Model the fold of this input.
Amino acid sequence: MRRLYALGCLALSLSACAVESRAPVDEQIAANQEEIFGGTVDSGNAATVFLYAINGQFVEQCTGTLIKVNGSYGYILTAHHCEGMQYIKFGTNAPQQLNAPDFQVDQDYPHPNYGGQAGDAHDLRILRFQGANPGMTVVPVTTNPDGVTTQTMVDISGYGLTESGDSTTRRHVTMKLSKVNSQFLEVNQTTGKGSCSGDSGGPWYADVNGVKSVVAVTSYGDQNCVQYGDGGRVQLDLSWIQGIIGGTVMETCDSCFASATSDGGACGATIDACFNDQACSDLADCIYNCPANDQACVNTCASASPTGVDKYNAIYDCAICDTCSSLCDTSSCGGTTTTTTNAATTTSTTDAAATTGAGGSAATGGAGGAPADDSTSAGDPADGGNGTKTITTCVACAVGSSNDSDSAVATLACLAGLGIVIARRRRQSSGIRA
Done:
């Protein structure tokens, strides 16, 4: 949770801080510390997520719950005082990989009636992100009435402080409620069990009419986490929650692309094929590190890893030309780019269908546009450095063009975006820490 001061901070900064301040970003997190006082490792509550923001050299953290997937959008319920959260990570060991967020918060909905002090009602906030998919674990909010009493057992889950210090692992503890009123649920923590700083916004799960549901959100408690802990009762604000998560969402090419390329998305296998191929993975990492709008850098990357180009471009075929074809500009999909290479020179030509299709732009090889495929390479090992290599690919690369006010995104931006996707997946797999 929490602590005093609306989820108090670490002892180093106990002012009117909204969320817990963690160690410097470049400091490795101790691997033997635990979360939640008196708890155990929580490998079962996959809907419990790690929320954080990087402010200068420090990281602020909270916990949340994935309560709804609506199209390509996911909705996280957390505490109002967990303001400024930027990133979302899923998984038991999420805090160990701060430089590889799974998703970025794209919309923030704070409850309008929260007073701003520990113990005030309506300490709720909903965060939305793009890239959700139906395979994600969701735990819904309770129905009304929730039916909880002082005999109800709640499962409190989070990534916060423990008896031994900071947190690296999601943990949980099951406790019986000690107090119940219209605004809060409370547990007695004198037994050495309960929530603490960093668990703020985390779920209190309970059985409601046979359905695992979120009945409260960790809100506040005593400063040392050894007397009591309170969770804001979700039942109080159900109409506000449903008004945000229950509506029809307007999908865009961007949101569909994010969903298709997210972990478990429609193009996950295609991304893994690139990630598992050294040349494709190297190409993605190289492009990821290119400066903005540096076409020469992209071309250099392609030249350095020519055999990875096909698998790299296949991700766009999957996401733009197939999965999101009804939302994205696919006028150039199916175009054939012919790249002729020899030991001394490299030239590229793109067929008419790929360069002059309806809605063509510079990004799709429209009027005056350069070839949209960046697969040019010298000395391709696949053909011995001579001859002709033909790649059939979606060369539109127009993420966000059809439903946004901006014009089609340039080819370089698309490639850089894919580099981010692959690089992120690589960092998640290797367990690199911030």
